[in-house]
C-alpha cells in the first residue's frame, strides 16, 4: 500500500512538472515580419548599436513593439526594442549562432511559428523549441538544415 501511495505521489509531481505556464503561450504571440515592415527609425537605431549583428529575424509582439533575433559573437540573441530601435531588454537564446540553413529550414517547415529557444546539441544538431496552438514543440535539424525530427509534448 505504501508503495502505491508513493507511486501515485510521484506520478502527480511528474505530471505537474510537465504542465504549461502562461509564459509558455505568450512567446508564440510574436509574429515574424519582413524588415520592410519595421519602421526605419527602429532598424537604423538597432543597426547603429549592433553593427556585428547578422541573420536578423524581425518580430512584432501583440503590444506592437518590435523584437529582433540575431546572431552576434557566436550567440543567438533576442532583443526587445523601443520605438527608436534602442534595446530595452535582451537575452541569449543560444550560446552558439544558429546557421542560416537551419533558420531557413525552420521557416520553411514551420511558417509563422516563433522559436523561443535554440539549443546546439552535443551531436552538432540544432533543436528549436516553439509553441504551436498552445502546445510545446521541438524540432531537430542537422547543421545543414535538414529536418530530422519534429515532436510535440503530450
Mean pLDDT: 81
Number of helices: 4
Range of helix content? 25-40%
Query: How do the strands line up in the largest sheet?
Result: 1-2-3-4-5
Class from helix and strand fractions: alpha+beta
Number of E-type strands: 9
The biggest sheet amounts to: 5 strands, antiparallel
Write down the secondary-structure element order: HHEHEEEEHEEEE
Q: End-to-end span in angstroms?
A: 29 Å
Task: Characterize the overall form.
Answer: globular
Computed over alpha carbons, the radius of gyration is 18 Å
Strand content: 35-45%
Uncertain stretches of 5 or more adjacent residues = 2-28
Number of domains: 1
Summarize the topology.
Elements: H1 2-17, H2 22-26, E1 31-32, H3 40-49, E2 54-60, E3 66-72, E4 75-81, E5 87-94, H4 100-109, E6 115-120, E7 126-132, E8 135-141, E9 147-152
Antiparallel strand pairs: 1-2, 2-3, 3-4, 4-5, 6-7, 7-8, 8-9
Describe the structure.
The chain has helices at 2-17, 22-26, 40-49, 100-109, and strands at residues 31-32, 54-60, 66-72, 75-81, 87-94, 115-120, 126-132, 135-141, 147-152. It has one domain. It contains four helices and nine strands. The longest helix is centred in the N-terminal third of the chain and has 16 residues, at 2-17. The strands form two sheets. Strands 1-2-3-4-5 form a five-stranded antiparallel sheet, with no helix packed on it. 27% of the residues lie in helices and 37% in strands. Residues 2-28 have low confidence and may be disordered. It is an alpha+beta fold and 154 residues long. The protein is globular, with a radius of gyration of 18 Å.
Amino acid at each position: 500500500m505504501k508503495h502505491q501511495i508513493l507511486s501515485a505521489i510521484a506520478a502527480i509531481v511528474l505530471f505537474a512538472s510537465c504542465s504549461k505556464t502562461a509564459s509558455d503561450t505568450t512567446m508564440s504571440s510574436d509574429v515574424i515580419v519582413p524588415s520592410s515592415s519595421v519602421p526605419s527609425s527602429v532598424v537604423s537605431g538597432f543597426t547603429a548599436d549592433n553593427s556585428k549583428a547578422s541573420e536578423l529575424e524581425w518580430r512584432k509582439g501583440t503590444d506592437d513593439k518590435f523584437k529582433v533575433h540575431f546572431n552576434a559573437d557566436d550567440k543567438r540573441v533576442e532583443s526587445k526594442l523601443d520605438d527608436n530601435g534602442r534595446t530595452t531588454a535582451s537575452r541569449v537564446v543560444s550560446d552558439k549562432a544558429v546557421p542560416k540553413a537551419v533558420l531557413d529550414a525552420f521557416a520553411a517547415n514551420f511558417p509563422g511559428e516563433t522559436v523561443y529557444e535554440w539549443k546546439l546539441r552535443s551531436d552538432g544538431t540544432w533543436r528549436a523549441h516553439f509553441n504551436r496552438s498552445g502546445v510545446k514543440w521541438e524540432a531537430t535539424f542537422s547543421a545543414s538544415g535538414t529536418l530530422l525530427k519534429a515532436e510535440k509534448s503530450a
